[in-house]
Write a structure and sequence with these properties.
The chain is an alpha/beta fold. The chain has a single domain, classed as 3-Layer(aba) Sandwich (Rossmann fold), CATH 3.40.50. The strands form three sheets. Strands 3-2-1-4-5-6-11 form a seven-stranded parallel beta sheet, sandwiched between helices. Helix 1 crosses helix 6, helix 3 packs parallel to helix 4 and helix 4 runs parallel beside helix 5. The longest helix has 28 residues.
Length: 243
């Protein structure tokens, strides 16, 4: 039975992926800060709830050690935990706000990827798959989203570097860029969000389960195949040509 680790599994896209993986028969380690919500997900199948702040090196290492103790290996990491800060121009972004986004969206993803990589490298059979949750903001930014956009651009580089470094170790790394999936975090988009032309307009959304299906497709590929980067988005969202 295959083992998947999902970070940010207590809500949104992470929860949708964890629930779908459990329904498909995966063993799933659910990682996030909210233990009560994690337990709701883990109880849907052969899952384990591991409360963890991905900003903490010690907490991440303890969580991944617990995964190995419970399941014996890690086949897939969906590296998903992230935050979206308030909208602001650069001169209205405090150092504390900037650092919080970098700590979660970049350093947290690095810590989780590193924890998975070292275990995939050492386990028998060797290898596994890491799927980083990037963002369409890593391709084309939204107005007033500096810290988020910068961290997601950085994930583009992380994914490519890990895909390169995983060669010869049977570790495939890919990235999914998701646009306008309907979650609590993205609910505001249906009410109206700033556009590049200065207007504020509602944007089309898609069911979050479509994003989860895209991740599950990547997760289910055979070892010899990899999706390096996939964009899945609401069909009519203003992304192509944004700017």
């Amino acid at each position: 039975m295959a083992v998947m680790v999902v970070t940010g599994a207590s809500s949104g896209i992470g929860r949708a992926v964890a629930e779908m993986a459990l329904a498909d028969g995966w063993q799933v380690a659910c990682i996030a800060r909210r233990e009560d919500r994690l337990r709701e997900v883990a109880l849907l199948g052969d899952g384990i709830a591991l409360p963890c702040d991905v900003r903490s090196e010690a907490a991440v290492e303890a969580a991944f050690t617990a995964v190995m103790e419970r399941f014996g290996r890690i086949d897939v990491l969906f590296n998903n935990a992230g935050i979206f800060p308030r909208g602001a121009l650069i001169d209205d972004v405090s150092l504390a706000e900037w650092q919080e986004v970098v700590d979660v969206n970049l350093t947290g993803m690095f810590l989780c990827a590193r924890a998975a990589f070292v275990r995939m490298r050492a386990q028998t059979p060797q290898g596994g798959r890491i799927i980083n949750n990037g963002s369409i903001a890593g391709q084309v930014p939204r107005p007033m989203s500096l810290a988020y956009s910068v961290t997601k651009h950085a994930i583009n580089g992380m994914t490519k570097q890990m895909a390169l470094d995983g060669r010869g170790l049977n570790i495939a790394t890919g990235q999914v860029d998701i646009g306008n999936a309907r979650t609590d975090l993205a609910a505001q988009m249906e009410k109206g969000v700033p556009q590049a032309d200065g207007s504020v307009r509602p944007e089309p959304m898609m069911d979050v389960r479509e994003a989860a299906r895209a991740v599950m497709h990547m997760a289910s590929l055979p070892p010899g195949a990899n999706v390096l980067q996939m964009t899945v988005m609401a069909t009519e969202m203003p992304f192509v040509g944004r700017g």
